[in-house]
Amino acid sequence: MSDRKIYADATAALDGILTNGMTLMSGGFGLCGIPETLIEAVKVAGVKGLTVISNNAGVDGIGLGVLLESKQISTMVSSYVGENKMFAEQYLNGDLEVVFTPQGTLSEQIRAGGAGIPAFYTKTGVGTLVAEGKEVKNFDGEDYVMERGLTADVALVHAYMADKEGNLVFRKTARNFNPMMATAGRITVAEVEHLVEPGEIDPDHIVVPGVYVQRIVHVPNPVKHIEQRTTRTRNQVA
Amino acid sequence: MSDRKIYADATAALDGILTNGMTLMSGGFGLCGIPETLIEAVKVAGVKGLTVISNNAGVDGIGLGVLLESKQISTMVSSYVGENKMFAEQYLNGDLEVVFTPQGTLSEQIRAGGAGIPAFYTKTGVGTLVAEGKEVKNFDGEDYVMERGLTADVALVHAYMADKEGNLVFRKTARNFNPMMATAGRITVAEVEHLVEPGEIDPDHIVVPGVYVQRIVHVPNPVKHIEQRTTRTRNQVA
Amino acid sequence: MAWTREQMAQRAAQELQDGFYVNLGIGIPTLVSNYIPEGMEIQLQSENGMLGMGPFPYEGEEDADLINAGKQTVTELPTTSYFSNADSFAMIRGGHINLSILGAMQVAQNGDLANWMIPGKMVKGMGGAMDLVAGVKKVIIVMEHTAKGEPKLLKTCNLPLTGKGVVDMVITDMAVFKFEKDGETNMKLIQLADGVTLDDVKEATEAEFDVAL
Amino acid sequence: MAWTREQMAQRAAQELQDGFYVNLGIGIPTLVSNYIPEGMEIQLQSENGMLGMGPFPYEGEEDADLINAGKQTVTELPTTSYFSNADSFAMIRGGHINLSILGAMQVAQNGDLANWMIPGKMVKGMGGAMDLVAGVKKVIIVMEHTAKGEPKLLKTCNLPLTGKGVVDMVITDMAVFKFEKDGETNMKLIQLADGVTLDDVKEATEAEFDVAL
Predict the structure, then answer these.
(1) What's the ipTM?
(2) Out of A163, A204, A210, whose CB is closest to D82?
(3) Could you give the number of structural domains in chain A?
């Protein structure tokens, strides 16, 4: 197996594929499973006017918060963006456009985009602001709203492990939006905690087949952030 | 963990849920990964006028071929049914109705049915017999045909391993239609080669979460059939 | 006199049934997990991509890769499975989750629900709430009966909706109401909290309701 | 004189590029895998639910759980991944497979393809063919130039279509044709098989084509 998909670092992995005004997808849920090293490299690259599709927008100084700070993002497509002062500021003064999308609609739109499905119908949001201006159709007596598939010029994802063919696996809830986004990027770049030879991952366990992954960067031992550290004490009954 | 989902045998697992004229889904591709023991139990139950959604229709005497022989099936929804004399006979004399559906449309319809999506658009079949009488819509300059989601009263699936919670994993290409069908049955019954306690399957490896599986029957060491035994000899170059 | 947050959660827990798959929102709904009856098998779903959610970890055992939809650190159980967010909402949208318990800003007498935005204020987004109320089989709202003395159970919601006609039951600190999704039957008062009278409820409620105590 | 089945497969193999993901139909297309140039990394997709398909197993090593879309026993490679049929066609429909090589009954000069049914004869079904031709980036048809002396390259297909305007290239035992999907440009003859003349091709072809040898 050649190393054709392997790049030395995040900057190399993004070389030549970033442009002003492009659409990026960025995996993760909150700060869990975000492609943090790749996001930092987008900052270094300095591209502006980005449309970013991501469930959340990071927090100040971490994840997409970094690209908000540097004012590289002009539009966010997200379901929830509560944890970010920078976000609130830019949103309220009109520097940042936000397309709020129900979380399940967003993930299905991304899955549809990757799967060549231009549109689908869902009950979610019928009769709410979300359905305004969209086609509503009745099936078997119930109304559904039509939602479009979403793709991106480049998808940035985080995986626990990749083999050199680009087969990916994820760890626990760090899976979240990463698998669908990997399928919906015209170019998908994965930062991975572990990089192994083909054959080292059981083929029954692979979540994202290598066909979806064009570029891989190995980021061992990344710092992982916890947004809400909730614990119980040993003498507490669960 | 209780044994609430575990049934002693295939007949017990189907008790009380089979009715004449019902819609069944049956997993498998060719004879690979078919719920053969459950199909035999449907024969014993003797319900008639079944609509069966299955990619193929078995072969004479094996899998759904058994239910064709017993004339329990009135409609098949399939992508390919080539390997079955009984099928050809009943089809040509009008005893059996067949809805031919492109394979990818069929599997996506089943996935959609399980996911609460009543309809989606696909390029597949535009301008062909398959699109006749269906809504065609143009997105971004290209035509797509609308296809409906599919559900079933009961889905019969085959899995390699289950835990008692109903979490399922599959082996190699025996996965095929089984995972989507598990999601699309109002009641899903799984026959499994191995039955283990919860926690014995790595939660990152689970393909079908237990919420989709209502009944489980343990069928150790099932006979598996090969339709096209193709081999190479040791001195042959691959 | 009225129910405490814990008592509201306890009342909501009475709606659980053995074998249920349940999604709990943040706030009071989260407390419901403390009142699952002994011996009852309930699997909690977390919409980010997990079924079979365990309690918070012991101090020092937090795992940044293992959080719930509220971004809180949680733990794994023997029954746990992980999946993508799309698969998670396929489960929700497809009607495979039995019960969702959520908070609310307003509920209308026809079952309309508003719990995601206040025009003019900073909007954080609806997260998964719109999908949950549209997809889950039964939706229970647990909320204070009033906000700053103003009723939250209204004839019509005046905040933007999360879902139309989606609520099956409302549990407040004062009472419990049931909704039929037929669009014809009124919402019904079915229970009063300890020490609360029918008149108390009538006074604190704008919505019209039948009494079926 | 014309190309053999092996030579047709060999010609089709010239369209492979390093790193391609390829789906091969049954018949002559399957033979293409024998002519993958040394050192070129090609992953074969099998639409039942497998990427990275290996050769047939050695005798005695057949595994009933490991078959290709033609229901033939195959083997695993280090690069192999397995997935559901829905995920397989998501890959196909989403345009992630670079090349599909298929057989055909008829191809029309506008790129229409017919390869799944003959009215009045027992219909076996289209399997995954309609999805493949609609979804895969490039579709190459490998077929005999004529059937029982009748041309298969037609002005218009008279059999029910598998796809409209989906063919990018046709390789027959006599020649190679290219199609532009612009609906305006004619199909182009770009190569003659060994010992075949332009006149031979003209005589055996009903479709109108430009000559670009």
Answers:
(1) 0.97
(2) A204
(3) 1
